[in-house]
Fold:
Amino acid sequence: MKKIILTLVVVFAFTHLHAGIVSHREDGTDTAKINKQIKKINLNIADLQTQLLEVRTKIPVDSVKLESALERSHAAQVKSKKRSEQAVGGDMDDVKLAEKQAKKAASETSDAEDAAKKLEGDRKTEKKLLKKIEKAKKELDKLQLPKNEQ
Structure:
C-alpha cells in the first residue's frame, strides 16, 4: 500500500511539475509572438499615419487648385461665348477666333474636372487610411488584452 501511495504521489508531482513547465514555455513563446505582432502593427500604424498626414496636406492644396481651375474655366467659357456671339455676325477671322476660344474653354474645363477628380481621390484615400488605422488599432487592442479578459 505504501508503494502504491508513494508511486501515486511521485507520478502526480511529476505530472504537475511537467505541466507547469510546458505551460510556462507556451506562454513565453506566445508572449514573444504577441510582442512581435504588436511591434509589427505599431509600425504599420505609424506608416499609415504618415501616409494620412501626407494626404491631409495635399487636400488644401488640391482644393485651392480646384478653385483656381474653376475660375479659369468659367472665365474661358465667358470669353468663348462672347467670341461665338461675335462670330455669328462677323467674318471668317471671328469664326476662327471663336473656335480657338472654344478649344481653350474646353481645355480649361477639362483641367478643372481633373483637379476635382484628384481632390475626390485624395479624400477617398484619406477615408481608406482612417479605416485601416482604426482596424489596426482594434487588432492591437485585441492583442494587448490580458488572457483572462478575452
